[in-house]
Amino acid sequence: AQTPLDYVLAKGSVDRNQIVFTEADVRLRGGRYEGQLVLDWGVGKGMAGSGTLHRVDMSRLSTAWLPGLKMVGNLSGNVEFRLQGTGRAQWLDSLEAKGNLAVEKGEIQSLDLAEAIRRGPGKPVRGGGSRFERLDFSARLAQGNLLLSDMRMEAGLMHAEGQVQGAASGQVSGRLNVTMVRGGASGVVAIEGQLPVIEVTAQ
Could you tell me which residue, 169 or 125, shows the higher pLDDT? Predict the structure, then answer.
C-alpha cells in the first residue's frame, strides 16, 4: 500500500518501547504537521501527538472519517491526537482527536444554507452547496463520532454559527444560525441526513 507521507524530519530519543520526537516535521500529500510525536511499539502499539496542522487537504480527511461528505479547502490549526493499532483500518477505528481549527477557501457540498433561508421555514433543501472564505470550529473525534462546535462560517454575504455532529454510521445533524447580509434575512437552519444525502431546513 502507498504511504501518505512525503517525508519526516524529526529529533527525538528512544525510551524502552517508544520513540519520542520532541520536534517533528511531517509532510503529507496535501498538508503538514509540526509538533511532538510519540511512536509506541509496546503493548499499546500506536501513535500520539500534539502540534499544528498546516494547509491539510480537507477533501482527504472528510473522505477518511465521514465517507459521503464532500468538503474541500485548506485545514490549519492546533490538534492533539492518539491512535492505536498497526494498520490503516485500526488507526481509523481507534483515532481520538481534538483541536481548534479553521478551513480556508472551501466548500461543503449538499449543504445549501443560503437557499434554505431564501425558501423559508419548513421547506427542505437537498443538494447545492455552501462556499466560504473561512470556517472556524472546535473539533472532537472519538469512537468514529465527530463533533464540530463553536462553528463560525464567513461566506461573503452570509454568516453562520452553531454546531454539527456526525456519527460513524454516517448520520449527520446540527443547527446553525444563518444571517444574510444583503436583505437582512436570518434564521435557524436544521441539518439532518444520512450521508451522502443531507437535508437543510429553515425553522
Answer: 125
C-alpha cell at position 182: 444583503
What string of DSSP letters covers the chain? ---SEEEEEEEEEEETTEEEEEEEEEEETTEEEEEEEEEE-STT-EEEEEEEEEEEEHHHHHHHHSTT--EEEEEEEEEEEEEESSSHHHHHHH-EEEEEEEEEEEEEET--HHHHHHH-BT--EES-EEEEEEEEEEEEEETTEEEEEEEEEEETTEEEEEEEEE-TTSEEEEEEEEEETTT--EEEEEEEEETTEEEEEE-
pTM value? 0.87
